[in-house]
């Protein structure tokens, strides 16, 4: 009977590694799709939270090696294509925010959840300003800021729930690291 090399990964180990590599990206894509489901009508508003931003921010802080910048770009591009707005807007906003969050990650990574949440508030406000400014330029007029502020409020308010969901998925599927 031939002896297996102990350093050769089994097919199950290789499949597990693939799942661990693509899981944050797939979660980002699911969050983009979730952004276009009319869940806002349940709460009496048409505001849709920025679920994709929640995934991007979470993984940028917790496991940036699992969600590289090209994955962030693709999530933003899919969001652009589905939104019907200017192509590249969300890809640009998400990549820029991701890079800034990575540079400030050391302030948040081992801090209490309140700091993690406050960091998300800042990131969401930054993305909101970029989105508002770009859309205002695209349409050639200053758009009202009130919808953006309401969108920001809903997004930040729902972030703890999604952070908890992402955390549970991370602990169950991804290895400690």
For the structure shown, list the relevant keywords.
177 residues, 6 helices
Amino-to-carboxy terminus distance: 36 Å
Number of strands: 0
Structural class of the helix and strand makeup?
mainly alpha
Spans of at least 5 consecutive residues with low confidence:
none
Helical percent range?
Answer: over 70%
Taking all Cα atoms into account, the compactness measure Rg is: 18 Å
Total helix count? 6
Described by strand count, sense and barrel closure, the largest sheet is:
none
Mean pLDDT, to the nearest integer, reads: 86
Please report which band the strand proportion falls in: under 5%, 5-15%, 15-25%, 25-35%, 35-45% or over 45%: under 5%
What does the oligomeric state look like here? single chain
Order of helices and strands: HHHHHH
Overall outline: globular
Q: What is the topological layout?
A:
Elements: H1 11-35, H2 51-62, H3 69-83, H4 89-108, H5 113-139, H6 146-173
Helix pairs in contact: 1-2, 1-3, 2-4, 2-5, 2-6, 3-4, 4-5, 5-6
Structure, explained:
By secondary structure, the protein is mainly alpha-helical. Helix content is 72%, strand content 0%. It is globular and about 60 Å long. The protein starts with 10 loop residues before the first helix and ends with a helix. The mean pLDDT is 86.
């Amino acid at each position: 009977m031939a002896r297996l090399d102990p350093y050769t990964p089994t097919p199950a180990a290789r499949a597990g590694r693939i799942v661990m590599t693509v899981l944050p990206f797939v979660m980002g894509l699911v969050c983009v799709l979730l952004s276009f489901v009319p869940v806002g009508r349940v709460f009496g508003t048409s505001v849709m939270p920025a679920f994709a931003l929640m995934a991007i921010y979470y993984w940028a802080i917790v496991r940036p090696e699992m969600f590289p910048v090209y994955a962030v770009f693709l999530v933003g591009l899919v969001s652009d294509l589905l939104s019907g707005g200017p192509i590249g807007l969300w890809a640009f906003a998400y990549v820029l925010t991701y890079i800034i969050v990575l540079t400030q990650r050391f302030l948040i990574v081992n801090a209490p959840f309140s700091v993690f949440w406050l960091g998300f508030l800042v990131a969401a406000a930054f993305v909101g300003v970029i989105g508002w400014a770009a859309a205002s330029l695209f349409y050639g007029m200053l758009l009202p800021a009130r919808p953006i502020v309401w969108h920001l409020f809903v997004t930040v308010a729902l972030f703890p729930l999604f952070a908890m969901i992402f955390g549970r998925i991370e602990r169950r599927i991804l290895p400690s690291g």
